[in-house]
Design brief:
The chain is mainly alpha-helical. It contains 7 helices and 5 strands. The protein has a 3-stranded antiparallel sheet, with no helix packed on it. It has a two-stranded antiparallel sheet with strand order 3-4. Strand 1 and strand 2 form a beta hairpin.
């Protein structure tokens, strides 16, 4: 019978409590490691070809906890430890900030800057301080809007890319 992520989380909580009372029990550590490894797949979304992918902050937070805990436990053999380190590296790589469609983002920013500067120059030539100030403020707001809308962490861009092929959503 397949166990749900909720069942596995409950078992992890139970094993953590048991481990608190018996911190040197290798068998409990091994069972806890096994549940954590399984959960790192269960909590993530799966694509149609059953590849686990991160599509939410909650998935990333849990997997960062699980990978750190697996390394801290130091059990499960080299394969589990390598898997935990690989998962941590994948999570860190996903935190890199990237531009969504870099060329379009750059073009939008150039248009905003050129338009803002043109209005500032026209306002200055006409002697209207209010036009200069408003153009400066609107240009700044426009640039900020482009940055907030177009600059994302790599995992978010990857999640948007795989959304059409998600077979099962994680937590």
């Amino acid at each position: 019978m397949d166990r749900t992520p909720g069942d596995r989380l409950a078992e992890v909580s139970r094993l953590e409590a048991e481990l608190a009372t018996r911190p040197d029990d290798i068998e409990v550590k091994d069972r806890l490691a096994g549940e954590l490894v399984a959960l790192t797949v269960d909590v993530r979304s799966l694509t149609r070809d059953r590849t686990p992918v991160f599509t939410s902050t909650r998935q990333r937070e849990f997997c960062m906890y699980a990978a750190g805990r697996l390394i801290e436990l130091g059990v499960g053999g080299e394969a589990v430890q390598t898997s935990a380190r690989t998962l941590q590296a994948e999570l860190r790589a996903g935190e890199e900030w990237m531009w969504r469609n870099r060329h379009l983002s750059l073009a939008l920013m150039v248009v905003i800057v050129v338009a803002g500067l043109a209005i500032v120059v026209m306002g200055a030539l006409s002697g209207s301080l209010s036009v200069v100030v408003v153009a400066g403020v609107l240009g700044s707001v426009g640039l900020a809007a482009v940055v907030f809308a177009r600059r994302k962490q790599r995992w978010q861009i990857d999640a948007e890319r795989v959304t059409p092929v998600i077979w099962r959503h994680g937590i």
